[in-house]
Amino acid sequence: MDHESQSLKPAFVTDHCIRENCPNCVHLQRRYCVYLCAMCAVFAFINMVALIYILGQQNANAESDILNQLHVLQARIENLEAINNRGLSVATELHDDSVDLPAKEGNDFPLSEFLKERRVKRRVFKKGSKGKRRHKPKLTGLQVVGFQEEHRPNGTFHKWEYADWFFKSIADDKHFKLHFGNGTLEVMQPGLYLLYSQITLKGNGTQGYHVMRNDKDPILACYSNNMMLHEEDKTSCFTMGMFKLDKRDIISVKHISTSGVRAVFTSNASFFGLVRLGRFNKRGVVLAV
């Protein structure tokens, strides 16, 4: 039995190390305690790092959710502001159509007499297929015209000014903006537009011009071959079309040549303009303005 118990002892344990106050045994026990504490510290550090990482992910997700909710609230606020602005415009128009009741002592003024004598400015409505009343569509347009006898541009025609009637229309800088320096026209509202142009040119040979969008897309073109004309003869070239224009699109009229261009730039000879026919919804369907 003693022989079997001694065979199970570790190789480094000798008979004189089994005593209670053996220095070697105490040293081994301390080493085991140090190793165990180090392993516990490593495990605790790993758990702390994992916990910090998990908390960071949760905070990031919470911040993302808060930002998404803020975007949704901002969109709802903008929608409510748009609805409020439309309601204010309608209320203003209704206030213009209001009628003041005549002042008279007592309450014996006959209602039928008042209804016969009143004069009310009524707004024009159009009844749709479903019986809903809606406003009559209003077209917004602009025309610019030349303002001198002869114009000799270096490619782009730029001697433009607003037509006289434009200042009396409902259009303003919210819809169009003419840049007088370079003769370009900026579109301020997206939609479907009718675009037209006429340039009266002088001289013989092949004459023509392009209507440019953003100075790189020739959306309209007009050409005229005047081989039989003299230098002082004139020819008018007219073109038009319908196009989808985006906000901040720039429209300009450019000759096919960059030198030797001569044009008659009176208001009845050279002009171009835009008429907004409709707007596009999110599905790309054209709606009345």
> What is the element string, with H for helices and E for strands?
HHHEEEEEEEEEEEEEEE
**Percent range of helical residues:** 25-40%
- C-alpha geometry: elongated
How many whole angstroms does the radius of gyration measure? 43 Å
**Averaging pLDDT over every residue, what do you get?**
75
Number of helices: 3
Q: How far is the first residue's CA from the last residue's CA?
A: 108 Å
Low-confidence region ranges: 1-19, 119-128
Strand content: 25-35%
Structural class: alpha+beta
Main beta-sheet strand count, sense and barrel state: 8 strands, antiparallel
How many individual β-strands? 15
General description of the model:
By secondary structure, the chain is α+β, with helices and mostly antiparallel strands. It has three helices and 15 strands. The chain has helices at residues 2-7, 23-96, 111-117; strands spanning 125-127, 133-135, 140-146, 150-151, 160-162, 176-179, 184-187, 191-202, 205-213, 217-226, 234-245, 250-255, 263-264, 271-280, 286-288. The strands form three sheets. Strands 3, 4, 5, 8, 11, 13, 14 and 15 form an eight-stranded antiparallel β-sheet that branches. Strand 14 (271-280) and strand 15 form a beta hairpin. The N and C termini lie far apart (108 Å). Mean pLDDT is 75; it is low at 1-19 and 119-128.
